[in-house]
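Our collaborator T.R. sent over the components below with a one-line note: 'Predict the complex.' Nothing else. No constraints on interfaces, no templates requested, no preferences about which chain binds where. So this is a plain run: every listed entity goes in together, and whatever single assembly comes back becomes the starting point for the next discussion.
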Amino acid sequence: MPLAQTATTVPVTVNADLCIADKGCTVCVDVCPLDVLRIAETEDGSKTAYMKYDECWYCMPCEADCPTGAVTVNLPYLLK
Amino acid sequence: MSGLFEDFDDIADLAEGLDDPVPGARIMAVIDLTDSADPAAIPHLARAIADEDAGVRKQAAQGLTDFDGPEVAAALVSALTDPDPAVVAAASVSLTELKDPTSGDAILPHLGDANEVKLTACLAGIKELRRPEAMTPAVAALKHAAPGVRAQAVGVIGWLQDETSLPALQEAAHDTDVNVRRTALAAMGFSQSEAAQSALIAALTDPEWIVREAAAETLAKSGGPSCIPALRGALADDYWQVRLKAVRSLGKLGATEAAMEIAPMMDLPVPNLRKECAAVLGELAVPATASYLKKYADDNDPDVRKNVRWALERMAA
Amino acid sequence: MDEILDGLTQIDCDILVIGGGTAGPMAALKAKKKNPKANVVLLDKANVKRSGAISMGMDGLNNSVIPGYATPEQYTKEITVANDGICDQAAVYRYAQECYGIIQELDDFGIRFQKDQNGEYDVKKVHHIGTYVLPMPNGDTVKKALYRQLRKARINIVNRYMATRLLTGEGRIAGAVCVNTRTAEFLVVRAKAVIMGLGAAGRLGLPTSGYLYGTYENASNSGEGYAMAYHAGAGLANLECYQINPLIKDYNGPACAYVAGPMGGYTANAQGERFIECDYWSGQMMQEFYDELQGGKGPVYLKLNHLAEETISEIERVLHIVERPTRGHFHKGRGTDYRKQMIEMHISEIGFCSGHSASGVFVDEHARTTIPGLYAAGDMANVPHNYMLGAFTNGAFAGLDAADFIADVDFAAFDEAEVEAERTRVLAPTKRDDGIPPNQIEYKTRRLVNDYLQPPKVTAKMELAQERFEEVREDMEQGMYVRDSHELMRALEASSILDCADMAASASLYRTESRWGLYHNRVEYDRDDENWFCHTILTKGDDGKPAHRKQEVKPYIVEIAEDEKDAYNNQRVGASVAAE
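Returned assembly:
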């Protein structure tokens, strides 16, 4: 029985132009208490952080600790 | 299992990352150096704070928050004139986190700097280090055109707790800026001198309530019997937070003559004020006020009830 | 990352600290300082840099006992009364005596407490004769400062490993089984002492938003500490005394009476009238809140719009910068402004958390649980109302005592079959080809918690909850399915949540009286001091289900006068005052 593919909008967004995951940065992935962020490799081979799991406590360390200001934490849609 | 524990890498190895041609990689090196919490990282971070990339400089300024000492302070002061405001802001915050008094060695020479932002940050940084040498430049900075500088200067003076600074604080208590006035009055709390008391009493009629509140509150520490009439006057202030502080200070000063003026304030609808009045009536323990307190033994507010009970116990004892 | 790998490593250490939030780091530091030769391992399922309830910071200490502002006797009395008398005072009293030393130590770490303009501590008067609230202007740097100390002390830190079961043998603690949250590889830690600081059970009830992670507590605090202690055979005290808090609706963060109250803010009903006089969080206060909502006078609001601009700016500065910075974003998104409107509040989901109530793993004044060598501190241990400073201080007690304990013992032998059995249990959801994902198991459990366990508590409803939980457990054990190691972590959390739900129902049914206001309002029973002035201790019974016993409240150290015992009752504003 396959699992459904239900879409969900996620609260954490990353500005790929500012993200330096390419350079080995994993600060946001490291600090997330719920471990919901991952690094994605895009088609052109560059890397950027993104929110993989919709399990966010909107607590902000990823945004606060990002060295380049690439991460924005919005409130999850269900409660904003 | 390799990688099970967090690493304690060699600092020199981590510092090699600062030579990477890519700024992002240098930022990562700064983060690793910071996380080491090893003082050996300080010279490398001091180098990174002069990096050609603003992002690296900002990260280094932030990272130095985790360290202390004159070398750290010197690096942070150098960043206060950085062309990028984000670097300056980060360095300013880090300066206020210093704890080691010797860090002040690197800040003291800059307490007369013409650059307003730099001067403000240096004053804020030296405050908690409590260096007596800062007194003269801080008093001089009270004449500065910018209110932000004057407020920081008052802070430095207050932390030094030196009676010779009172004339300067008295003058600052008449500053045009509300925040400077309020800070100057609070800064007098260490002194029970007549100079401090007269300045605080005068400020009880300041047009701004937050200034009157600071004066009423500080009189608990600075005041003496001669201040009681002025504080009794403040019981009729039109702002409740000022009245509350006046009640509290009268309690601290043991102003039993004010007890019969405080007792009827138990009838006021502001619960915070009722709580404070009950507690102070207990401190003053004037038997004639017991009837007012007993009226509120069953007050709806549990804290009022508790304070009333405590006050009545004190009177009985 | 997240691929499921097969692996098992075993390491030995003297002291294993599970949980790197607040209590855990302090325990590790104290143990290491007392015995520098001890091998101390600090393990966290997240990253110690930003883990635990204070992930982003904390705006102040709510319960500091500073000489000149409050006394240990006063504090112990307040806490005893706030807990309806059910309180072993020794732990509270020791905390009250020693927390000032911890404040000074934290100050040395670089955590700044608010000082006045002369550099002296600036303690705010909030709700008692004593004065306990000490603001932290740079509270956002707490975790950084702690982390720095851990690095300096060269504590061995293990991140992203989740402890799943404790190991015992020879009648004492032997270690723990852990699993990597990104690879599913196992780590067996043999330890002479284990200190648990795993936080609250914050994912027990479901927030009204329906978002699984929109909880009051940090959502990573999913109750593993309670579940592990239970399965290891430790006693848990008074779990029926739930945590329920008055919160900003939907945002589900604190309205912060501690910040707004002394400045004149208060909780009001739809007419803007004050209906409770004291905003200090207690079960009685929550009962009044509940009654107001049920009685048609709601919604209930946080009222600040009568305050001066200067006061509101100060409240905003504290509330929006430090503890939950997204709160400012929330109000902006809604277009709400403290100056203009009252802010809608609501009742939180239920949870276990001694930080604000009195339930948790039973510990004494040394943070010892009922299992030798096993300690617990912080939100998961039953020292009442202990907040962040309690976590630090009781964590310190645990570290100090554990450092002594390990001096006299070697590793306890344990049954290797336990490790194998735990591997089988943990990995079961990875061995299936399809089934129920953990988020659905969790959602259903928590929805049932809301339907049947949220007070007022009704016997028939709680019994129905037990039936439904049995069914969910069957589904979980036979049909839960995960695709990667991240989902496996969620599956293990779902299991802890279900254990906690079972314990909540069972403990609530056992105490056949009402106590602690709304927290344990059993509508069929009145308060009954004759039979229930006691702790209830829950353990794992021989049948694998919760077993219960009563335990006497230890004789008080600080006496409470008869007329002081009702201090938190009768919270409702009388008509004459409310009208003003």
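Summary for T.R.: Confidence is low (pLDDT under 50) at residues 575-580 of chain C.
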